[in-house]
Amino acid sequence: MAVSYEMRRLDSLPWPTSIGKDLEYPALRGKILARLGPGPDAFKTAFEGDSTLRSLIGDALSSAPWAPADLSDVDHLYSCAAQSSLLYRMVNDDISWRRWADPLQQRYGRLVFDWLCNPIRITVNGIGDGRHRLTYLRLHRGPAYLVLVRINHAR
Fold first, then answer.
1. Out of 33, 79, 121, 149, which could bridge 128 as a Cys pair, Cβ 3.0 to 4.6 Å?
2. Strand order in the sheet with 3-9
């Protein structure tokens, strides 16, 4: 397994077809689907142009256990990640990255796992995991915001 941890601009990341977590948010899924138009970019188009949809998503995701009340802690964790010597390096597993993140666990608790050890995962097919966190960031941060992602380079 060849992976790398990288900081990428929010606007450079692929758009998912939904927020993910369909089983955890079945009512939200139905409301989203009712507002989407046709096509592969339907979620992006609706998200960018439908303030009611953004409110529905924001209300649902804000109460999730991984969603911090204040994104400044995530901002700080991403700032720490940007200083890691492991950033942009190919590694064969996630162990070295988790060892690097361990000291931050005491100060930030679960946020370290949710946002640093299990970042948004990008594969050759798009987003592998983290659509909900990516959507949450798009609600609260601008397009130039730097996001930690884990890239799986396997084909």
1. 121
2. 3-9, 146-152, 120-123, 126-129
